């Protein structure tokens, strides 16, 4: 039933966003990829996905730090049956030293962009008579860690906004939910492994289990493919009454 529907996935030229895009394209969805760059590789990625799965895939550049560009992304997409708010950045510093520009950027990209895209997409979903809003929050939308004030604030914020969108659409065939991943093996996390090995003088496996996955009881990373499958489930008819809630994909992190 998803064939022919269009999904807009923010921040989808790498990592979790790209994993969700791959799962969606494989399920027959048309996909709009996005990031703030406009490189040959970005458009090549769209072509590759389209060819592999025989669906329509476009790459649209939009800097989601800017509200008008976030709204424009949805307008340019022209259709948005499924909106995945995934774009996000991180900065780690004590609150008394946290650069104001970083705070503003994290709140803008990780939280406010979802307000703008959702505002632009809801009228399209209502017109189409069906819709799914999927916000990629984090275990940090439910739990805190030191030195991540802006990230934790933005992720708790997006969990809250998800509930409001769910209530405002409760009697319509539209749902809004947040997926809360624990640690996922994306290029970003992969890059931290050699430094962690060096810093703690550990082999790869020990560095992963004892440092990176310190708070993830399963001692396994979640994968971008598992997140794609979770997002796809939220798009299915089986999930039609799941709204205003969070799904953790965190190997037990938030059970503690
Ligand atoms: P990533 O860096 O691979 O992906 C982030 C994406 O956002 C990229 O495509 C990037 O280009 C895009 N982006 C960044 N700034 C942007 C901007 N101004 N405008 C448009 N796009 C922008 O990282 P990821 O791990 O795949 O993260 C994706 C989401 O998942 C984020 O919201 C992150 O907070 C969340 N998350 C990640 C993990 C993890 O362990 N990797 C865990 C929990 C939650």
From TrEMBL:
Pfam family, one: adh_short_C2
PROSITE patterns membership: ADH_SHORT (PS00061)
InterPro entries: 3-OHbutyrate_DH, NAD(P)-bd_dom_sf, Sc_DH/Rdtase_CS, SDR, SDR_fam
One GO MF term attached to the UniProt entry: 3-hydroxybutyrate dehydrogenase activity
Gene3D superfamilies: NAD(P)-binding Rossmann-like Domain
GO BP, sorted A to Z: monocarboxylic acid metabolic process
NCBIfam families, per database record: PHB_DH (TIGR01963), PRK12429.1 (NF009093)
Record-stated family: Belongs to the short-chain dehydrogenases/reductases (SDR) family.
PANTHER family referenced in this protein's UniProt entry, alphabetically: 3-OXOACYL-(ACYL-CARRIER-PROTEIN) REDUCTASE, 3-OXOACYL-[ACYL-CARRIER-PROTEIN] REDUCTASE FABG
Name listed for the protein in its UniProt record: 3-hydroxybutyrate dehydrogenase
């Amino acid at each position: 039933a998803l064939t022919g529907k269009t999904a807009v996935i923010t921040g989808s030229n790498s990592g979790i966003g790209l994993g969700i895009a791959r799962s969606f394209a494989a399920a027959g969805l048309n996909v709009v990829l996005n990031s703030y760059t406009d490189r040959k590789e970005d458009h090549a990625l769209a072509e590759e996905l389209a060819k592999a799965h025989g669906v329509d895939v476009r790459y649209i550049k939009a800097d989601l730090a800017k509200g008008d560009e976030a709204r424009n992304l949805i307008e340019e997409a022209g259709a948005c049956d499924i909106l995945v708010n995934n774009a996000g950045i991180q900065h780690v510093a004590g609150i008394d030293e946290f650069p104001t520009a970083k705070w503003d950027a994290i709140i803008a990209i990780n939280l406010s962009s979802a307000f703008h895209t959702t505002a632009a997409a809801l009228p399209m979903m209502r017109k189409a008579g069906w819709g799914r809003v999927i916000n990629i929050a984090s275990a940090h939308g439910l739990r805190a860690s030191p030195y991540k004030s802006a990230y934790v604030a933005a992720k708790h914020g997006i969990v809250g906004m998800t509930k409001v969108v769910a209530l405002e659409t409760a009697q319509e065939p539209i749902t809004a939910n947040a997926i809360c991943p624990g640690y996922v093996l994306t290029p970003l996390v992969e890059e931290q492994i050699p430094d962690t090995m060096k810093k703690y003088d550990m082999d790869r496996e020990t560095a992963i289990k004892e440092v990176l996955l310190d708070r993830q009881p399963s001692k396994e990373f979640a994968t971008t493919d598992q997140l794609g499958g979770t997002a796809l489930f939220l798009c299915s008819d089986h999930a039609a009454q799941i709204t205003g809630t969070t799904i953790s994909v965190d190997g037990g992190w938030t059970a503690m």
